[in-house]
Design brief:
alpha+beta; four-stranded mixed β-sheet; 4 strands
Amino acid sequence: MAKRKKNHKKSLKQNRKPKERTEKYARGTRSYTMSHIHGKDTAIEVEVRRYLFSRGLRFRKNDKRYPGHPDVVLPKWHVIVFVNGCFWHAHEHCAKHTMPKSNVEYWSAKLLRNRDRDHEQHAKLAAMGWRVIDVWECELEKNVREKRLTRLYYEITEEATTQLPAD
């Protein structure tokens, strides 16, 4: 009898239809929605800029003269700040960066290209004499935001004054 129940359960599992995923958007709406996602003035960028401005720092935003169009350029301190989303910039060892389960080849190649391009841009900026600071989306969660922003301010101002001038 026990054997018969097992086989019955097995046959029920085999006869099940695969779950169909319900689409979140109507046909054609996804493309329209994705086309309106932009790479600048994101919520986390605005949060960082608002904090820096409130602390008296003045900066340029999204300056196209520099590799990577940095989110914040502080010429007085010779510092460039990139505010990166953990997913789009493939933040290593971060819970917010997960590889999508569908179309894996495309996404892994795209996100690795993004990461490689970031490294190249950082190297070019460093060669131009800029200090580059990355602020990650996960560092701006509510429980750690104030600490990270304070540290960012310190990295910009204090470290600039402690460095010896180049000959």
